[in-house]
Amino acid sequence: xxxxxxxxxxxxxxxxxxxxxxxxxxxxxxxxxxxxxxxxxxxxxxxxxxxxxxxxxxxxxxxxxxxxxxxxxxxxxxxxxxxxxxxxxxxxxxxxxxxxxxxxxxxxxxxxxxxxxxxxxxxxxxxxxxxxxxxxxxxxxxxxxxxxxxxxxxxxxxxxxxxxxxxxxxxxxxxxxxxxxxxxxxxxxxxxxxxxxxxxxxxxxxxxxxxxxxxxxxxxxxxxxxxxxxxxxxxxxxxxxxxxxxxxxxxxxxxxxxxxxxxxxxxxxxxxxxxxxxxxxxxxxxxxxxxxxxxxxxxxxxxxxxxxxxxxxxxxxxxxxxxxxxxxxxxxxxxxxxxxxxxxxxxxxxxxxxxxxxxxxxxxxxxxxxxxxxxxxxxxxxxx
Length: 384
Ligand SMILES: Cc1ncc(COP(=O)(O)O)c(C=O)c1O
Known about the structure:
The relative contact order is 0.17. The protein has two domains: 5-22 and 278-383, Aspartate Aminotransferase, domain 1 (Alpha-Beta Complex), CATH 3.90.1150; 35-274, Type I PLP-dependent aspartate aminotransferase-like (Major domain) (Aspartate Aminotransferase, domain 2). A seven-stranded mixed beta sheet has the order 2-8-7-6-5-3-4, sandwiched between helices. A four-stranded antiparallel beta sheet has the order 9-10-13-12, covered by helices on one side. A two-stranded parallel sheet has the order 1-11. The protein has 14 helices and 13 strands. Helix content is 40%, strand content 15%. The structure holds pyridoxal-5'-phosphate. The site of pyridoxal-5'-phosphate has 13 residues, from helix 4.
């Protein structure tokens, strides 16, 4: 069934303004149901866990429901899910826990496509433990060089960390092959799904990944992080936790302190929203928006990243000769078009493309964007 974009937009209060919000890669807007769920929790159930009284019992139930919902969203068991402040904080925590099993000389591979949230935690761990971090290079078309990955795997490689989609260029690596290569060398496959999550379904079992991280604020929910860890793996790690906190379910060992319960309520509503629309309708519309952008991008713009809608999500980094990325973003903002500029923490990609320190302009489309917004952007780019 195709998407009724007008009806969709009517559900998002933030989309009622005239500004074309093409800033989704930095964070998406929330439908009213998400906003209501957060407010309702604070109004009616605000309490800590484990008490004998009604609001605390409702909070216990909410936390359970949030883990059940996370499991549905990721295709795993509820006990394999962990909530945290955001992806970066969770990744520092999980890499630290894994680090307790590693020794000097062990190797980690990351990719030039990664956001620094899936690079810096490894560099810091390497700094503390004497590990070695290698980078998987990109081919000219910005796809991941899987031959380079194969060459760099050794008997000491413990982890291959990679993104399901590049937050800078939109490139979608061949995750199945990355996982296969990692496992063939006895390494863990550690996926960053933050940028992919608003664009398509995630099934950690089908992907075969050992750890996967995402951020609900990138898929129509509130500012939160969410991680999956394969149960047998998590059970082998010693968590950094306070002694009285429960050891079961295992994923919750890695949740430190009191969670933002109101945001868990918003998270549940966000997943229900996506489930109601269905990925098929979302992907069909997004693909059409992306195709329109690619077909009509003015010649004066240089696109970085895949030139077709195959092997990518509709996130586009580009430049205009003679203008800095910030200048272009400012001119677009004056015309009521919100886009990003800079490196968006994808520092390795930008270095690789020779675009630092200025970075590139980035426009990202999600299902609530319209053809009219794409056309407005294209017309502005032709006219700047
Ligand atoms: C691909 C990717 N990974 C990681 C992150 C970091 O996510 P968080 O802000 O939840 O720490 C981002 C944020 O933009 C991202 O796009």
